[in-house]
């Protein structure tokens, strides 16, 4: 790489570092507003700002990729995928909080400026540009703090998402990641959004929180606590 291209690469990487910081900051802001039950207008404004910043970040990712000019930029792909994972998860959470799926704005942006989005693969692209609509049933979240609630959580999620033939496994995994919190979220945090990892995530949650013997024992212990002493 000549000196001019090297200098351009360094400048582009620095600009991308700033955008990554801003995307992370916007996600944290979105999380705080949702956790504090902010009004939907505020959440929608932050959500649209996040989309704009993510589009800029995607453009810089493409520019860096073109400048690097190597066959297997593994580190570039892994880091880029991490940011896409976070974006997809909080995109879904924001849309669910707002109460309407407003992916039209993002899709129009992609259609008008396709060069801004350079998906890692077609599956991830379908999540970003053609996000399917969840059934009207409101999905409950699951934290893992009370495992006795897992059967109810899973039954509703299974009906709305897991058994939905209109969703592929990456879409299903996106929704699953968007509704687990706390201990449950930590259990599958290390799994990236791939078709293969959806099955792994489901098994991880079932093995840790869905064991019938453990749920039964905890339910019995809870029942015993409420039996009045003679």
Describe the overall structure:
The structure is a single chain. With about 230 residues, the chain is mainly alpha-helical. Helices cover about 70% and strands about 0% of the residues. It contains ten helices and no strands. It has helices spanning about 5-35, 40-70, 75-100, 105-110, 120-130, 150-160, 170-180, 180-190, 195-210, 210-225. Helix 1 (about 5-35) packs antiparallel against helix 2, helix 3 (about 75-100) crosses helix 7 (about 170-180) and helix 7 (about 170-180) crosses helix 9 (about 195-210). The termini are far apart. This is DUF1758 domain-containing protein.
Keywords:
single chain, about 230 residues, mainly alpha, about 70% helix
How are the secondary structure elements laid out?
Layout: H1 3-35, H2 40-68, H3 74-98, H4 103-112, H5 122-129, H6 150-162, H7 169-179, H8 182-188, H9 195-209, H10 212-225
Short summary of the structure?
The chain is an all-alpha fold. It contains ten helices and no strands.
Q: What's the N-to-C terminus distance?
A: 84 Å
Strand content: under 5%
Q: Name the helicity range.
A: over 70%
Spans of at least 5 consecutive residues whose pLDDT stays below 50 are 100-136, 218-227
Taking the sheet with the most strands, its summary is:
none
- Helix/strand/pairing category: mainly alpha
Protein name: DUF1758 domain-containing protein
InterPro entries: DUF1759
Pfam families: DUF1759
